[in-house]
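Complex record, two chains
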Amino acid sequence: MSYLDRIAECHRWEPDDYRPFIIDDMAVGRVPRDLATRLADFPNVFQVSGRAVSLVPDLNSFDERSAAVADVLGRMRAAGEIPRWRDEAYPILRRWGEAPLLTMERAAVPLFGVRAYGVHLNGFVRDAEDLRLWVARRAKDKATAPGKLDHLAAGGQPHGIGVKANLIKEGQEEAGMDPDLAARAISVGLVTYRCVREEGLRDDVLFCFDLELPANFTPRNTDGEVESFELWPFPRVLETIRDSDDFKFNVSLVILDFAIRHGFLQPDDPDYEEIVAGLHLPPEPV
Amino acid sequence: MSYLDRIAECHRWEPDDYRPFIIDDMAVGRVPRDLATRLADFPNVFQVSGRAVSLVPDLNSFDERSAAVADVLGRMRAAGEIPRWRDEAYPILRRWGEAPLLTMERAAVPLFGVRAYGVHLNGFVRDAEDLRLWVARRAKDKATAPGKLDHLAAGGQPHGIGVKANLIKEGQEEAGMDPDLAARAISVGLVTYRCVREEGLRDDVLFCFDLELPANFTPRNTDGEVESFELWPFPRVLETIRDSDDFKFNVSLVILDFAIRHGFLQPDDPDYEEIVAGLHLPPEPV
């Protein structure tokens, strides 16, 4: 096994399995056949053809679109068709930085193959000799990736909160971090991927942050999502990613980005160019 | 003007203007129409069709390929068809990390639209308050980008030297750096781009390095390629990139990558996702 295997896992999907999900003439997601068929039951909200699924053009404001889609999703939820309902509104964007076209319940986002955003925190301790990364073990009862290894703090990016503010919130909930400490985290880029998971088609952008922590910091989970925390020498983290799938699939990407940025992987490595390329999707629109 | 304008300049090319350059059934470059026509004059080395330019399959070793191509390029040079001859052998690779298929004179690489590699060094000084970047002004008599602003040290990646060793050599030649000092540089990733320049189609991968320098370090150019060095507050560097094309086109990309990695650009910036995407070409093969 290799780092490239971890990356390949984050890029498995079949374009032919989907029809574009179109809002206002712009493709913002990918809907599989079964869902397209089901959405045809709601012709006041969705126009379904053999080529595409579109939001009806009459729905032309943020509020109208959000309400109409929420109504359909609520009915599907009642029919047991949307597992793992989160009660969290995600923004659906034409382009990062623009006003959202609508919000959509988080659990439905991968069903529609819509792009989602998240934050991941590399929390590490450095001394003269080496660098150690805080590793969390996810609770065994989590809905996704139970028992997998994770970052000190990470989470989805809901509607209505800034990226850095969201990171600080996640640091508090997941690792009991003081907001002042989490605010010292530095934004260091992003990784992107598109792949089929149990929950649907994940089309994600993860904003990455680095935070050098004092040696006396001890994380403390406050929301029951983490079973335990350990401080691992970074080479052990990398070996575990290379040789196993113990880390949650997308955490591996963020950690490989960390390894690249901090010189733990070197340009003379034959896989170097392919690893960096694999952390970034092509810049085309969806 | 904006950062995205700088990035767009590094991605201007027209796929239809080229035919694939094929070695051993693998596309490794892009040849424009005029060159394809000219290469048809050398049927012992190149097979030219309306669809592709191929190296003749009989040339099936590194030495044979290199010698045959060098012979053709030498004739073209004698006919004045290859300006700015460098006498530097670049490796032509199927994939980074594999043994080169042949070497090719550096000046011919963009004529064949073949991927080239290089190293760029972000040399900076940090104190409690801010970060300053060493900026070089290129000599006015340089063949490419005379008078433009540049990195402390940067250069192409020739055949037969490791990436880090090359960086140390460039640091010595371009900035008079002690090899021990340059060896402290940390590899931090790469940027990629493909664009038409005066010299042809540049399809480049630049390995990026960061080096935090002591406040008492003063660069000293030893090869006549640099007119002067200045230490600029990083915000001034970024503003100059945003508002002008004073920096050499590809240096802007490496500095934007630096700005992303060090938190000078933030995820809440509406252009953030597009800037990061613009630093990396799609991971497909050539």
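Note: The radius of gyration of chain B is 20 Å.
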